[in-house]
Write a structure and sequence with these properties.
homodimer, 351 residues, alpha/beta, 434 Repressor (Amino-terminal Domain), Rossmann fold, 6-stranded parallel β-sheet, 12 helices, 12 strands, 40% helix, elongated, DNA-binding
Chain lengths: 351, 351
DNA sequence: CTGAAAGCGCTAACAC
DNA sequence: GTGTTAGCGCTTTCAG
């Protein structure tokens, strides 16, 4: 059994092997210029002592920490946590470590301390995995440029000169709208997310545009704003049924609110999808088991995180400091529609 | 506008201020022994240059990194991500940083590299936030003791001489069982989680014990094993209805599987709760909006993470190296039953 | 092939 | 009050 002592340093290994620390360094870094015998002897001492090089000391001298800073928010929601899931997998894969910060609120705006904490720990790059909400992007030009470190942003409106990875929310809801129209729904209402959120605005815009292209004039009472929660979905649906009496379908901006809306429809004795069609967004694993199963938009949040990591590592390793740094680019992931019973009324007689 | 240059070091600040690096050190550490004028002058240079001390260099010399290692698994599930949510909040609160590792599988057993990565980055303590599954705890005595570093474990069977923070799964399901029995259900089946999981075994044991105490003999066909997913819930429920024809209630080990079971009940034309009572576990936010709303067991996973952080920081700061280290202790959180329509048949006529 | 010297950015211990 | 020296654990020169 190895003994429980404070870990040995390179010096102690050197002493125990009868060589200089330099030679130990060469062995642990797998440099070629060590004689086989020396290498073997040193290796044995390393194993015996359980020596592991200090990543800290290395980071200091090499000016590369092989550590990524990740800033997230709302880990209690499935979206951010699935994305983080993809980030951790890719970070691990690349042999990096991950320093995590979670903002207390989505619209937190005092980001200086966050950056300080990350930069003072010498992260090689930062993934800003916080949705664009309200004014929480105003600092980009002010602050981010001060820090000479690559940053990649998730889930936000693409901007000039920065790297962004996002999901195409607009196309997602357009797909859902096309499907509802094909199914013969004519009076499609919308429950949006909070319009403070860029994603909510994108999804709503898709609804509006599709209506317009179908020759329906937009009216304020065709639409109610929710806050992503199921409870807000029930409130929004109640209001919507009241103010939009012709309504025969609801495009809901996420699955949770759609679940709330379904509950209200049931309470009113409306049959889904015959009397009212409903679609969601996110494709929660549970949505396939709602009553009835929910038509929704699937987007790959895991992959979102994975791609962000791969991109930033590419930027880091291609030499951020070089004369010609890697050009910032935006990556947009395309979602897909998952058709389920909640919107499929073609099989039924029209009422 | 501050200029975008590589961050200044303490040396440059010293040169610019015309004092020694030592004095700079005293100022940034708020030591008393600096004259007001010097302090002021240095402070100004610091602000002007945008100097921030390197946490890395400090960690190296102080032998304290103010960084916690957190190991998790299954961030795509709500449980682990809510717990991480609590961890990040508490870590931030305490002024620590957080190094995150996610295991690719719950039952991963090659933990040596994980520890190496964390220890080589000089974390002050480790939170092992991975559920106890299969053999994934065998290494505790072998490996963990090799590392002279405090570790706290979440969600596992309490053991001698280690610090554990868990939720009382057993009591949770006992509460649910008492409630079902009070409601007059007599033939209560069970859909368990995978019995590889300690939590699944605890929940099942509560069901068994409650049956026995109620004078019902346990039979193999009163029970089916699921894998936590809604899909497995449907399969398990189908099988259970087949093999346990008298069944009038199902104690389901989590909300997702309960949702699947509800779907099957509906398909069979059974009314919930009149013909079949159903309870879940976890209190997913959505469970209040299932059709009907689901009776479930609430447990505070956020707080679980928060407490773990507070506990390990207490251990670290009370002097892990001292002669008499802090005694390991277990913290067990008590869950609460949330009664909703899916199990409330007292209001209805018995059929 | 191997070692000695210097130093990454900072602080502890001691002078003065 | 302030500066000097040494060194955290490692790697990068540069000799030999």
């Amino acid at each position: 059994m190895r003994q429980k002592v404070s870990r040995p340093t390179i010096k102690e290994v050197a002493a125990a092997s009868g060589v200089s620390t330099q030679t130990i360094s060469r062995v642990i870094n797998e440099r070629p210029d060590v004689s086989p015998e020396t290498r073997k002897r040193v290796q044995e001492v390393i194993n015996k002592l359980g020596y592991r090089p200090s990543a800290l000391a290395r980071s200091l001298i090499r000016r590369r920490s092989h550590t990524l800073g990740v800033v997230t928010a709302g880990l209690n929601y499935t979206g951010p946590s699935r994305t983080l899931n993809g980030i951790t997998a890719a970070v691990e894969q690349a042999g990096y470590a991950l320093l995590l910060k979670e903002l207390p609120r989505f619209d937190a705006n005092s980001n200086e301390p966050i950056f300080q904490a990350l930069v003072s720990r010498h992260v090689d790059g930062i993934i800003w995995a916080v949705q664009e909400v309200g004014e929480n992007r105003n600092w980009i030009n002010k602050l981010a440029l001060d820090f000479d470190i690559p940053i990649i942003y998730l889930t936000m409106e693409p901007r000039e000169n920065i790297s962004v990875v996002s999901i195409n929310n607009y196309v997602g809801e357009r797909l859902a709208m096309s499907h509802l129209l094909e199914q013969g729904y004519k009076h499609i209402g919308h429950i949006s997310g909070p319009l403070e959120w860029w994603e909510a605005r994108q999804r709503m815009k898709a609804w509006k545009d599709a209506l317009q292209e179908g020759g329906v004039e937009f009216r304020e009472d065709f639409w109610v704003e929710g806050n992503w929660s199921s409870a807000s979905g029930t409130r929004a649906a109640e209001k919507l049924f009241e103010q939009y009496t012709d309504m025969d379908a609801i495009l809901v901006a996420n699955d949770q609110m759609a679940l709330g809306a379904m509950q209200i429809a049931h309470q009113k004795g409306l049959r889904i999808p015959q009397d009212i069609g409903i679609t969601g967004f996110d494709n929660l694993p549970e949505s396939a088991f709602f009553g009835p199963p929910l038509t929704t938009v699937n987007h790959d949040q895991y992959n979102l995180g994975k791609l962000a990591v791969e991109e930033i590592i590419k930027i880091i390793e291609s030499g951020w400091d070089e004369e010609v740094p890697t050009q910032p680019k935006s990556i947009i992931l395309e979602p897909a529609l998952i058709v389920r019973a909640s919107s499929l009324r073609m099989g039924y007689e029209n009422k």
